[in-house]
Design goal:
It contains 13 helices and 14 strands. It is α/β, with parallel strands linked by helices and about 425 residues long. Helix 1 links the parallel strand 1 and strand 2. The termini are far apart.
Length: about 425
């Protein structure tokens, strides 16, 4: 049994995050041949839109015992316990990215560790490369939940550094290779119920426009219907609970918003971002339902959140988003921020009307039984509420005091 730099002790049983695709199938066989260990496969249905039963058949073909194959439908848990808490914060990394890939990794890591504990596995493995963010997200999750676990990251260990080497390994070990997998893929895709991300190859030059064939979740906004789509989203305590009055589960609601976003060309983002590992990368993200949800949530907050609470949330949001992007979902600081964010959502309840049109999300109305908006207070007419215009003079003078003092000093110094 050979040992890698990642392990100081023999590995007996490993839980692999397994998609059923060529790369993770090669990893599966590589784990068996390199470590001589028992492999358990875990495949998560996060709404990526692919049939997962072939993953079971592929694992069986590669010698995995039926009782060691785990396939779980995590769509509801994913949206309810990960996506929705993140959207309560209006989280965007670097002001734009809605964190679709980042937020899926802690759930996968959590399930791998649960299976490892259940079956007595001493190691976990993933298929993330040594250049990306996902290796960090997976492994921080593993260590947070099982500090003594052994982590195997094949892409950092093996010598299969070319496509040719990977295919030769697959052929040697009789791993089926689909015809479309023999050549270099024009770009790589990661998908779940929240988004689809594409990067690499044809997308690596940030000066070039994203080719049309890369998009999979949205139609071209220019080809979207000429008639707007009007919808109403209902919110309770910061979470979306209904569309047009129909109560929906978290995953069902996001699925419906995705369909509405797709049809109206909503949610495309071409982004050059700063990876946690230090390099810049260019990616194309499609988050149709999430984009609608983001604007709807901010709209209901606009009438239900106090100014101080709203502004504090906006100040903390970049830190919260960065924690998720960098893989610190299970950190105490993320949990502390989450408690603050969730407290702010106590009265974020009501409905928002939105117009979806050719790639745009437009707010056209918002209502709440807890609204802080007072029409009598803001009207230009004299309202019935107690607001004396003359009070503003003292308010302005007090706020101007330090500015006047600074101005007097400049005058004395002739500045």
């Amino acid at each position: 049994m050979s040992l890698s730099p990642s392990s100081e002790k023999p590995v007996k049983k490993v839980v692999l995050a397994y998609s059923g695709g060529l790369d993770t199938s090669i990893i599966l066989k590589w784990l068996q041949t390199t470590y001589g260990c028992e492999v358990i496969t875990f495949t998560a249905d996060l709404g990526q839109g692919e049939e997962l039963e072939p993953a079971r058949q592929k694992a069986l073909l590669l010698g995995i015992k039926p009782e060691n194959i785990f396939i779980e439908d995590l769509r509801e848990e994913f949206v309810r316990d990960y996506v929705f808490p993140m959207f309560r914060a209006n989280a965007q990394y670097e002001g734009l990215y809605l964190l679709g890939t980042s937020i899926a990794r802690p759930l996968i890591a959590k399930k791998q560790i649960e299976i490892a504990e259940k079956l007595g596995a001493d190691a976990v493995a993933h298929g993330a490369t040594g250049k990306g963010n996902d290796q960090v997200r997976f492994e921080l999750g593993y260590y947070a939940l099982k500090p003594d676990v052994t982590v195997i990251a094949p892409w950092r260990e093996w010598d299969l550094t070319s496509r040719t080497a990977l295919l030769e390994f697959a052929e040697k070990h009789q791993i089926p290779i689909a015809k479309d997998k023999r050549g270099e893929a024009p770009f790589s895709v990661d998908a779940n119920l929240l988004h689809a991300s594409s990067e690499g190859k044809v997308l690596e030059d940030p000066a070039l426009e994203v080719p049309d064939y890369v998009y999979s979740r949205t139609i071209d906004p220019e080809k979207a219907p000429d008639t707007p789509t009007i919808i109403t989203i209902g919110f309770e305590k910061g979470d979306a609970v209904s569309i047009d009055g129909e109560a929906l589960s978290p995953a069902s609601l996001l699925t419906k918003l995705n369909a509405l976003g797709r049809a109206n060309g909503i949610g495309r983002l071409d982004l050059v971002e700063n990876r946690f590992v230090g390099m810049k990368s260019r990616g194309m993200y499609e988050t149709p339902g999430g984009t609608i949800l983001y604007f709807g949530h901010r709209a209901i907050e606009s009438i239900t959140l106090d100014r101080g609470a709203a502004h504090l949330k906006d100040e903390l949001m970049p830190k919260y988003a960065e924690l998720i992007y960098n893989g610190f979902w299970f950190s105490p600081e993320r949990e502390m921020l989450q408690a603050l964010i969730d407290k702010s959502q106590e009265f974020v309840t009501g409905t928002v009307r939105l117009k979806l049109y050719k790639g745009g999300v437009h707010i056209i109305g918002r209502e709440s039984p807890y609204s802080l908006y007072d029409e009598d207070l803001v009207t230009f007419e004299e309202g019935a509420v107690a607001y004396d215009h003359r009070d503003a003079a003292g308010f302005i003078k007090l706020n101007a005091l330090r500015l006047r003092t600074l101005g007097q000093r400049k005058k004395k110094l002739g500045l």
